[in-house]
Amino acid sequence: MYTQERERELIELTRKLLSELERIRKAGKEEAQEYVQELREVINYHDYKYYVQASPVISDYEYDQLFRALRDLEKKYPELITPDSPTQRVASEITGAFPTVRHYTPMLSLDNAYTEEELRDFDRRVRELTGLDVVEYSVEPKYDGAGIALLYRDDLFVRGATRGDGETGEDITNNLRTVRTIPLKAEFSRFGIRLIELRGEVLINREEFRKMNEERLEEGLPPFANPRNAAAGSIRLQNPAEVAKRKLDAVVYQVSYVEPESRHPNTHYEAIEMLHLLGFKTPFPDMKLCKGIDEVIEYCREWEEKREEYPYEIDGMVVKVNRKEYYEVLGFTSHHPRWAIAFKFKPKQATTKLIDVVFQVGRVGTITPVGKLEPVEIGGVVVSSVSLFNEDFIREKDIRIGDLVLVERAGDVIPYVVEVIKEARDGDEVPIEFPDRCPSCGSKLVKLPGEVAWRCINISCPAQVVLRLKHWGSREAMDIRGLGEATSKALYEKGLVKDVGDLYYLKVVDLMKLPGFAEKSAMNLYNAIQESKNRGLDRVLYGLGIRYVGLTTAKKLSQVIDSIWDLRDMPVEKLEAIEGIGDVVARSIKEFFSREENVKVIEKLDRAGVKLRRTKLEKEGPLKGMVFVFTGTLRCCSRERAGELVESLGGTFSNSVTSKTTYLVVGEEPGRTKLRRAEQLGIKLLNEEDFLNMVKDYVDLEELRREEKREGYLF
Ligand code: IVH
Question: Of residues 142, 281, 344, 397, which has the active-site annotation?
Answer without folding.
Answer: 142
